[in-house]
TrEMBL record:
Residue stretches making up the HTH araC/xylS-type domain: 1-73
InterPro entries documented for this protein: Homeodomain-like_sf, HTH_AraC, HTH_AraC-typ_CS, Tscrpt_reg_AraC-type_HTH
Lineage: Bacteria, Pseudomonadati, Pseudomonadota, Gammaproteobacteria, Oceanospirillales
Organism, as annotated: Bacterioplanoides pacificum
Keywords per UniProt: DNA-binding, Transcription, Transcription regulation
Name of this chain's protein: Helix-turn-helix domain-containing protein
Length: 75
C-alpha cells in the first residue's frame, strides 16, 4: 500500500497515522504492564521512551492513571 493510499484510508476512518501509533503504544503498554514482573522502566524503554517520567506522563494521558496505579489495579 502506498503512503497516499494509507492516508486516504485513515482519513476515511477519521483518524491519523499519529493517532494509530498512540493507540498501538497505549495497548502495548497496558499489555506489557499486565506482566507484573516487568519493571515500568523496562516497559518505557521497550516503547521507545528515553525517560521514564515521559512515559509516566504519556501513560497517564492515554489511560487516566499512572503505570504504577494501573499495575496495582490488576491485583
Amino acid at each position: 500500500m502506498t503512503s497516499r493510499t494509507l492516508q486516504r484510508h485513515l482519513k476515511h476512518d477519521n483518524t491519523s497515522f499519529q493517532e494509530e501509533i498512540r493507540r498501538f503504544k497505549a495497548a502495548l503498554a497496558t499489555s506489557l504492564l499486565s506482566q507484573k514482573e516487568r519493571p515500568i522502566s523496562r516497559v518505557a524503554y521497550q516503547l521507545g521512551f528515553q525517560d521514564v517520567s515521559a512515559f509516566h506522563k504519556a501513560f497517564k494521558r492515554w489511560t487516566g492513571q499512572t503505570p504504577g496505579e494501573f499495575q496495582k489495579s490488576l491485583l
